Amino acid sequence: MRFHLVFLALLLAGLAALAAEPPPTWGPGDDPRVPPAFAAWHPGFEDDGDYGESWFTLVRNADGTLIFVLLSVTNLGLHTFDGSVDVQVYPPAGPARSFHAEVGRDAVEGATDHLDMRIDGARTWGREGITHLRIQRPDLDLSLDLANSLPSWRHGDGRMVFRGALEGEWTHGELAPRARAAGHLHAGDLDLVIDGVGYTDHGWATVKLPAFLRRWTAIRVLDPDLTLVLHQHDLTERFGGGSNRFALLGTAEAITGATRAFTLRPTATREVAGQAMPTAFALSLEAGGTRLEGTIEEVRFLDAIDVLGRVSLPVRLAIKALYTDPWMLRWVGRYRFRLTGADGASHTVAGTAIVEVDTY
User: Could you list the mean pLDDT of each consecutive 10-residue stretch along the chain, which spans 360 residues?
Assistant: First the structure.
C-alpha cells in the first residue's frame, strides 16, 4: 500500500510541475547576522509533508583531509518523520570513509530559540561565533569545535519565498562562513587530529527541492588569502529556467562584501553517474568594491552520492523514472582568480576550491 501511495504522490507531483510559476524571491532584511532562533530547530513545520531541515559542516584539515557532516530532519521520505546523520571523510590519499545513521522521531530533539540539536548520538550546539559538533556512535567518534574567523551571514532575511501555486520557503544562513576548526575524529583504523579551517550553515525548506531545482552548485574557498562561499540554484522550467545566485567574498579575517549577481559558466563537463557534471567554470563577480574574475578546474574527483541509494529498489526506480534522479557530485578544483580593488589595483591568487554539484 505504501508503494502505491508513493507512486500516486510522485505522479501528481509530476503533473503539478507542468504548471508555470513565478520565480522565488528573497525576503527583505537589513541585518546580515544570523539570529539565534534562525540557527535553531523549527518543529513548527513538522506536519508539513514537504518539510526538511539540515545543519551542514565542512572541514578542510591541515593535512588535506576533507570532512563533510550533515545532520538533517525531514518529512520527505516514506516515514512520517526521519532524522539522519551523514559523515563523509576524504583523506588526501586512500579510500574515502562514509557513515550513515537514520532514526525515528523519538531520537530527535532540540531547542527552538538557539542552536542545540540532537539526533540520536549526534549533537550540534553553540552561540554566535562558536559552534560545537559531537557524534558518538559505535563506528564513529567525532569531536569538533568551530570558532568563527568571519561573522555569520544571511542574504536578506535568509528566506527564498515561493508565492505561486507552490507556496513555501527555502532558507539559508551561514553560521560560520569561515572558522578555525579543532578536534578529533576516530573511526576504525582512522585516527585524525583536526586542526584546520571550517564552514557551517543551516537552513530549512517547505518545498521539495526537485520541484524548483535542476542543479545546485556550491563552491567554497577557504584559503589563507581568500574566502569565497558561492551558491547557484539553476531553476526548473516551471520557474522560468533562470538562476538564483548568492555569494560572499572575503579574506581570512574580514568580509569584503556579498552579491546576488555574478556569472558562473561551466566550460567543460563529463558524465558521472549518468549526470553531466561540470568539471570547469569561468567565474565573474563583484562584491564590496572588489572585482573577481577567473577559472576553476577539477583536479581531484571526490564522490558521486546517490541520494536515493538507501531507498528500497522498487521505490527508488519509481522516483527516478517519474520524478527525480538526485545525485551529489563532489570534486576539488584549482582556481586562478584576478582580484581588482576599487582603486584599480589588481593581483592574482591561486589555490583550492571545494565544489559540490547537486543534480535533480
Answer: 38 54 89 96 91 97 98 74 92 93 92 97 95 96 98 95 90 98 95 98 94 96 97 94 96 96 97 96 98 98 89 68 84 98 96 97
Q: What is the pLDDT of residue 174?
A: 97
Print the SS3 string covering the chain. Answer: CHHHHHHHHHHHHHHHCCCCCCCCEECCCCCCCCCHHHHCCCHHHCCCCCCEEEEEEEEEECCCCEEEEEEEEECCCCCCCEEEEEEEEECCCCCCEEEEEEECHHHEEECCCCCEEEECCEEEEEECCEEEEEEEECCEEEEEEEEECCCCECCCCCEEEEECCCEEEEECEEEEEEEEEEEEEEECCEEEEEEEEEEEEEEEECCCHHHHEEEEEEEEEEECCEEEEEEEEEECHHHCCCEEEEEEEECCCCEEEEECCEEEEEEEEEEECCEEEEEEEEEEEEECCEEEEEEEEEEEEEEEEECCCCCCHHHHHHHHHHCCCCEEEEEEEEEEEEEECCCCCEEEEEEEEEEEEEEC
Residue type, 329: L
Model-level pTM greater than 0.90? yes
Which CATH number is associated with domain 31-207? 2.40.370.10
How big is the chain, counted in residues?
A: 360
CATH for the 209-360 domain, from 2.50.20, 1.10.10, 2.40.370, 3.40.630: 2.40.370
Check: CB of residue 92 under 8 Å from CB of residue 65. yes
Q: In whole angstroms, give the CA distance from residue 171 to residue 53.
A: 9
pLDDT of res. 30: 81
